[in-house]
Write a structure and sequence with these properties.
The chain is of the alpha/beta class. The chain has 15 helices and 14 strands.
Length: about 400
Amino acid sequence: MKILVANLGSTSFKYRLFDMDSQCQLARGGIERIGSPESRCTVQIGDYNQDISVKAADHVEAVHHGLSQLTDAAHGCLRDASEVSAIAFKTVHGGRYSGVQRVTPDVLAAMEEMCGVAPAHNPPYIAAMRLLADKLPQIPLVAAFETDFHTTIPQYNQLYAIPYEWSESGCVRRWGFHGASHRYIAGRTAELLGRTDLRIISCHLGGSSSLCAIRNGQSVATTMGMSPQSGLPQNNRVGDFDPFALPRIMRQTGKSLTEVLSILANQSGLLGISGVSTDYRDIAEAAGNGNVRAKLALDVYAASVRHYLGAYLVELGGADVLVFTGGIGENRNNLRTAVCHNLAELGIVLDPVANQQACGEVSIHALQSRVQIWVMPTNEELVVARLAAKLLKESPSPIAGDGRCDGKE
């Protein structure tokens, strides 16, 4: 079975192709600037790389270009497109749908209901998936929702202190995201240490960031809540924020609620504090050159990670493993130093040399550290491919979910 995992943007289609019999990645590629007069189409199959100019008016044409590369007689890894068992998506928010679902009109409608909660993620996925379902009906589409890994979180960590009926009738709760990444970290850590009874704190730190407390392979708490705008400060999204500040901001700026929410979702976070960039690397460079606001943005980010790290140490009753993943978590040793600073009393001690030299999957804790500390590249696409393959094997024909807000299948 071969699964094509798609990562969609409003004008992009990136993919990875997996052979699920061997659990190996066969190819990766993508098409940028969809809808422009000229699009860039790239592919990597083994040692073969290609970067060409094509015309892709929409995501369907982009998929066709990708399949053409994969079935190329000279360099492709497929005989023909019929070898693709499904296109699977790392979808963000389905509201009344969670888990792994075949894409149906009702699943898309449920995603559409949550566009206001996930405005940067849901709309481009919905538009592209509807188009693909219409134009490529022969290829099953599978949605693996990011909220699924967090359905094991107990209610006391799920609920907001709001009228109970709002939670029940409106799907208002802490849903949590980055589920594929945290699921991968849970499984890979258990594999490396040869144990399934671990207390893990997974730090997915990148343009979008979250922490997850994991016990025995299951999520018990996570930093993101109802929306991906919550929790840690994101690259351009606000993170945790007091809603009672909204009326004051509206009076102060003269902006509408819609305008203020757009700013909180697109011009806040690290960008809002630093005034420099949405990219952590640019902000770190500016801070190193003496930019005070850039340094403040880095400090606020590290402090927020430490805040939740402390909370999850309490929730788990300590930790066996602390994992850094994501673009920032894997590549910024200064951030890891800041997060772990002065935590020896809690059993967390970095090896400064190992931390400085860390590359790829590696442990970076000192000998005296009670908690193992790892840098671990995540593999969300492989998780999505596995979930999609499992669904296709167990449910070879389309089935509909029950549409409940509890997210149970």
